[in-house]
Design a protein that fits this description.
InterPro entries: SsuA/THI5. By secondary structure, the chain is α/β, with parallel strands linked by helices. It contains 13 helices and ten strands.
Length: about 325
């Protein structure tokens, strides 16, 4: 359930993919009825519920697309999988796509993927502490040990911004890499002072009495675009019609998901292991159809200031539709 992946691992995989000779073009095949077989690399988390719901509702089939989802191994295989043509489309957080862009990886976003709710204390991700923690505000996180699922990515850069906005100094935060599912226990046992978690781990920490000290996505930018669907530059250039139809289908799926939260909670039971009780309680994200460019530019600036792009500066325009 890793939402993001490290720049180092990403770079190695990306260059492996391109060095092996990327195909990255054409769909996964077209049947005798003219239906495109399309594979999408996803991470089996709450964020991608709309694509599963859209498949169930026939939004892709209505556009002559037979879509199938394949889970990326920890997320790190999705970008090179798209570049190589293993997947025609993929899902990734925006910071990872910006990292890829600074490595000159030929990708292009086609649709928004998931966004913050924009509401303090009511977002699908947050920095949590134990109920009796002396940490009262985000400023108190300065110098503390905080778990994030991946270092040098969207988690630590947005957490740092929460600390800055609260008047604290984020320079000496000790970020510890830890898979989201391990974070609740680590926090409870005192292995870390605070944990950045997303749903369903956010609900798990709350149920154990945890206390929210920062809504880091909300602090980073208003209505932050957290992730997007993307394709290879090659496919975008060679089959613009398929890309158009896929984009229309995923946009319809996200609009439907945003308007039918109960159906989202139900569909989660088909591709995740989230139990029914938790599915009914967790905080859902927003699924707008437009990428918030200003928020992506903010992520690029935060990442540049925090040094996660290894001295490079992302060109946001190059990856946006």
């Amino acid at each position: 359930m890793r939402r993001v992946f490290t720049g180092i691992a990403l770079a190695g995989l990306l260059f492996t993919a391109t060095a092996c000779g990327s195909s990255g073009g054409s769909s996964g095949g077209t049947d005798s009825d003219g239906v495109d077989q399309v594979k999408v690399g996803v991470i089996p988390i709450v964020d991608v519920a709309p694509i599963y719901l859209g498949k169930e509702k026939g939004f892709f089939k209505n556009r002559k697309i037979e879509v199938s989802m394949e889970a990326g191994q920890g997320g790190a295989a999705i970008v090179p999988g798209v570049v190589s043509g293993q997947f025609q489309f993929g899902f990734s957080n925006m910071t990872s796509l910006l990292i890829a862009q600074t490595k000159n990886v030929p990708i292009k976003t086609v649709a928004a993927g998931v966004a913050s709710t924009g509401e303090q204390g009511k977002d699908f991700g947050a920095v949590m502490v134990k109920a009796d923690s002396p940490i009262k505000t985000a400023a108190d996180l300065a110098g503390k040990k905080i778990s994030v699922n991946t270092l040098k990515n969207i988690g630590d850069t947005t957490v740092r911004e929460s600390v800055r906005k609260a008047g604290g100094d984020p320079k000496n935060i000790n970020f510890v890499e830890m898979p989201f599912p391990n974070a609740p226990a680590a926090l409870q046992e005192g292995q870390v002072d605070a944990s950045w978690v997303v749903e369903p781990q956010l609900s798990e920490v709350k149920a154990a009495g945890g206390r929210l000290v920062a809504s880091n996505f909300v602090d980073a930018a208003p209505n932050l675009t957290v992730a997007a669907y993307f394709t290879s530059a090659k496919l975008a250039g060679e089959d613009a019609d398929l890309v158009k139809r896929f984009t229309e289908a995923i946009n319809e799926s996200m609009t439907y998901a945003d308007a039918h939260p109960d159906e989202v909670r139900t569909i989660l039971g088909t591709y995740t292991k989230i139990d029914e009780k938790t599915r009914g309680e967790l905080m859902l994200p927003k699924w707008p159809t437009q990428i918030n460019q200003a928020s992506v530019e903010t992520l690029a600036k935060l990442g540049t200031d925090d040094g996660i792009f290894d001295g490079a500066t992302p060109d946001v325009a190059k990856i946006l539709p």
